[in-house]
Amino acid sequence: MNKPAIAIDLGGTKIKIGLVQGNTILAGTAIDAHSGNGLQERLPFVAAAIQALLAQQNLTVTDIAGVGMAVPGIVDSVQKRILSIDKKFGDAPGIDFESWCTNALGLTLAIENDARTALIGEWKFGKAKAVDNVVLITLGTGVGSSAVIEGKLLRGKHFTAGILGGHSVINYKGTVCNCGNTGCVETEAATWSIGAKVKAHPAFAASTLANECLIDFESIFRLANEEDFLAKQMRDESLDVWAACAINLIHAYDPEMVLVSGGIMASSSYIIPYLQQKTDAHAWTPWGKVKIESASYPDAAALLGAGYLVTNE
Predict the structure, then answer these.
(1) CB of 143 closer than 8 Å to CB of 191
(2) What global pTM score does this model have?
(3) Confidence band of 87 (pLDDT split at 50, 70, 90)
(4) 37: nearest Cα among 114, 101, 95, 91
(5) Is the pLDDT assigned to residue 130 strictly greater than 90?
(6) Residue 15 — left, alpha, or beta (φ > 0 → left; ψ -120 to 50 → alpha)?
(7) 174 and 271 within one domain
(8) How far apart are the C-alpha atoms of 97 and 103, rounded to whole Å?
(9) Which domain of life is it from (predicted)?
(10) Which end of the chain has the smaller Cβ count within 10 Å, N or C?
(11) Residue 152: CB partners within 8 Å, gap ≥ 6?
């Protein structure tokens, strides 16, 4: 059996670390990301957390195949560099991760965009297993995407292929996105943007959303279930945004299946049937209907995929 790998998922709030072997996370830990302060200052804490995790399992680095890192940005997986990253860990493009991994841990490194590693986890071990054409959408702080086409992970010449679904334009008269474009999927319905959108609505003061300490999709779906008129409007508009994103990805990549993952999928029992109905009605797929499915590993797929890259690429 292959040696286990160390997998790191660079989230904006938490940096998750797992000891991964195949489709199993043998052990895991997490540290605060403090992503607004950059990544360089967190790397010693990441290394210390890895060493502590190994010690807990009575392992040393000689028992480990390598390190896989999932990154919320555009990644050159060949040169093992972060090319561009949006807001979080702003200093990351200047860091030599391969040297850090060698010097701090004595291990080799695989590095990839987090939506791609999440799709790898689902493609190799989850609902997309044995599916040769599949797209993943992640609904969380932002909106991510990735694609496997004809049995190959899509990366592209400049490493952006498939991962910018959240930055496809669905409202050219919309607001400016973090990426500099106008009317992206993310500006219309992502956790980072939804609070401002709700508060700007003329009916906000009369809505029970005005009583919430935090306006996010948990509160929107909860209050929509309680028949709050603005929460229902925001919920339904967001669902239409995500459906448009799914249809754009279907038209671009011709998948058999679209997997939906991310923190918002706590409301999957409502989201998945809605997206299925919309894509059935509006995606131009004369061969049949694309399956819309919730991901098997919404919290762990990126770690599983990062581990897989260490031992299989």
Answers:
(1) no
(2) 0.95
(3) confident
(4) 91
(5) no
(6) beta
(7) yes
(8) 10
(9) Bacteria
(10) N
(11) none
